[in-house]
Amino acid sequence: MKIDIFNHVMPVPYLDMMKQHLKDQGILKRMSNLRMLWDIEARVRMLEEKFPDVRQVLTLSLPSPELVGGPELAPELARIANDGMAGMVAKWPKKFPAFVASLPMNNVPAALEEMDRAITKLGARGVQICSSVNGRPLDEPEFFPVFERAAKKHDVRSGCTRRGRRPARTTSGSRNRNTRSGRCSAGRSRRVWPCRAWCFRGYSKSSPESASSPTTAAP
Question: DSSP assignment of the chain, as one string?
Fold first, then answer.
């Protein structure tokens, strides 16, 4: 059995909210065209036919809740995403043994509430956080409670994926990247989609098809 612990999905209700509220039509078009992100029945058929030994731990694809809506809307978006992924796990437990929850990081009190709800009530194995919050670095004091709650209350470990987009070259051929702000520049700064950090707990021995040791990410 092979376990993919960082596989992205897009619950249809979340995609519908993106269509209503997201300003970046480019990322909306790309995500809408990736059928396997949101047509989960088609994904399950594909897994059964081509990859019967693969199990997927689900995470929300970009854009994250705080990239779609402001502090008032993002908590609702996170709930929609997490309820959707929990439903996939409940419906297809042999294909999707677990999911990792998303948080509204532009509203820290709501992020703490959603972390508690997703882990204790929905069964999430941890939380996924972008490597910046709308350009703000994660080491700002405002965000410390999120990591404290994850580590001290829920006992989940943290990690980060590398950025997917390479920084642009300047005319001289050199690269310039500001990793704290989530931006890169070539003469002038341009927005890039952040990569994801995650706080994750491996399977327990009582979980269906559990691993004998905590699940870790591939390098």
Answer: -EEEEEEEE--HHHHHHHHHH---HHHHHHHHH-HHHH-HHHHHHHHHHH-TTEEEEEEEPSSPHHHHS-TTTHHHHHHHHHHHHHHHHHH-TTT--EE-EE--TTSHHHHHHHHHHHHHTS---EEEEESEETTEETTSGGGHHHHHIIIIIS--EEEEPPPSSPPPB-TTS-BEEETTTTEEEESEEEE----EEEEE-PPPTTSTT--SS------
The string of pLDDT tens digits covering residues 165-204 is: 443 333 333 333 333 333 322 223 233 344 454 455 554 4
- From the first residue on, what is the mean pLDDT of each consecutive set of 10 residues in the chain (219 residues)? 87 94 84 88 95 94 93 97 97 95 96 96 92 89 94 79 42 38 30 46 42 33
Q: Are 78 and 104 in contact (CB under 8 A)?
A: yes
Residue 68 CB coordination number (10 Å):
24
Q: How far apart are CA 24 and CA 18, in angstroms?
A: 9
Query: What Cα–Cα distance (Å) separates residue 108 from each residue in 66, 82, 138, 146?
Result: 11, 17, 12, 7
- pLDDT value of position 24: 82
Helical packing angle, 12-21 and 74-91, nearest 10°: 160
